[in-house]
Amino acid sequence: MEYKITIHDESETIELAENFESEKFANMVICLNGDLGSGKTVFAKGFANALGIDEQVTSPTFNIVKEYYSGELPFFHMDVYRIDEGGFDINFSEYFVKKGVSIIEWASLIKDELPDERLEINIKIIDEEKRLFIIKPIGKIYEDLCEAVLW
After folding, report:
1. pLDDT digits over 106-120, tens only?
2. Against a cut of 0.70, is the pTM above it?
């Protein structure tokens, strides 16, 4: 099943992220895909803020992974946009079992390394402010998550 939600501005992106955060669980994996400027990092920041991360969350484009431990659960923010440039030796699967939440920007670039169960969110730019979020739960726990958050 797929859910489609039209988001009208950044505040609604943050609200959606906060709604998912309210149903968080250990080893949660959220995969974000969309063009540059579509709102992937805004979503990740909104989730992290709701999680209680007291550090400034920025895109980990040049680090690939940033780890935050000041919230209710560990938060692993990944941006794999530059992964093809090489020189990165990262075992992503280790993060998926560290009892935290992983949010991966440009997740389709590492699709072979993603866990079998996850939440996929594709973001399409409609205009300057408006976005279409296409949300696809993969696995029962993520189907239940979407039912709790999106209904």
Report:
1. 999 999 999 999 999
2. yes
